[in-house]
Amino acid sequence: MIEDLVCCLVVLFVSVRTVRSQDFVSCFPGAPGCFVLDRVGLASYDPKGPFTCSQRSGACMTTQCVEEGPYYKTNAPIQMIGEGRNGFTPQICPNSVSNDRLIMNGTVRVVDANNPCGRPTRAMLDVWHADPEGNYTDIRPSAGDYKCRTRLITGDSGFYTYSTTMPGRYASPALGPGFRAVHVHVKVTPLDSNNKPIGRTLTLQQYFALDMYMGKNDVCTECRSDDPTLITHLQHSYDIKTFDGVHDILLAAIF
Ligand SMILES: *[C@@H]1O[C@H](CO)[C@@H](O)[C@H](O)[C@H]1NC(C)=O
Ligand SMILES: *[C@@H]1O[C@H](CO)[C@@H](O)[C@H](O)[C@H]1NC(C)=O
């Protein structure tokens, strides 16, 4: 009897592990287990009411919005984080031992009448950023290259995490002389349990404290790189070449 129980528990454990490793492989185009189809149907959400970002809500501020810029590309591969606290960390840019790594996590929350500082919500995070040289991959839909671009879908806890290479600093001659603050672009969409959007998409950029090109030094004057709701204080918990930090995202009430 006890042996049977042990046997079954082992089988259960093994099968859970197997499902995880299939669902959670690093997702580069062509990688096994990588969803390249757009399953999420973002176009189906019909916005109601005015859109607000960076509003006071009780003791909290909702997260600031920032323009998406010229390098967004739709239909990036999807990685399911699920309840990602179990150790799976999706990869955005392929890891490279010669470059600094960036490991981020946080929780997506949404304001409602009873929760001015938000309650966790399932969400999709469409993440893209420059590679360590400061370059983005080709944005034309005909170019199949989705390096350094992915969509993450959280579980109901709203917990997200990703690992990537630290984005390179780059100039933006179209905007003028100088550099952009180092940043990661994210579009955040709250989802229901069927991964259907239940609110508007917040477009933002994640910035990092101590970047000398933030705020008034940012060649992009519209990019709000001095907004505290967008800035993470990174640390080195594991290694001097690995930056890690927490950025929680608070969406304004959506209905
Ligand atoms: C990255 O961009 C720079 C100029 O912005 C260019 O010289 C370089 O070739 C690019 N690197 C790659 C790998 O495309
Ligand atoms: C989130 O990131 C922080 C900072 O790197 C780390 O201390 C914490 O363990 C991470 N949390 C999870 C659940 O991974």
UniProtKB/TrEMBL annotation:
UniProt KW Ribonucleoprotein keyword: no
All residue ranges annotated as the Intradiol ring-cleavage dioxygenases domain in the record: 69-243
Gene3D superfamilies according to UniProt: Aromatic compound dioxygenase
UniProt entry keywords in alphabetical sequence: Dioxygenase, Oxidoreductase, Signal
InterPro entries hit by this protein: Intradiol_dOase_C (IPR000627), Intradiol_dOase_core (IPR015889), Intradiol_RC_Dioxygenase (IPR050770)
Signal peptide: 1-21
Pfam families assigned: Dioxygenase_C
Domain of life, per lineage: Eukaryota
Gene Ontology molecular function terms on file: ferric iron binding; oxidoreductase activity, acting on single donors with incorporation of molecular oxygen, incorporation of two atoms of oxygen
Family: Belongs to the intradiol ring-cleavage dioxygenase family.
Name of this protein: Intradiol ring-cleavage dioxygenases domain-containing protein
Protein species of origin: Hypsibius exemplaris (Freshwater tardigrade)
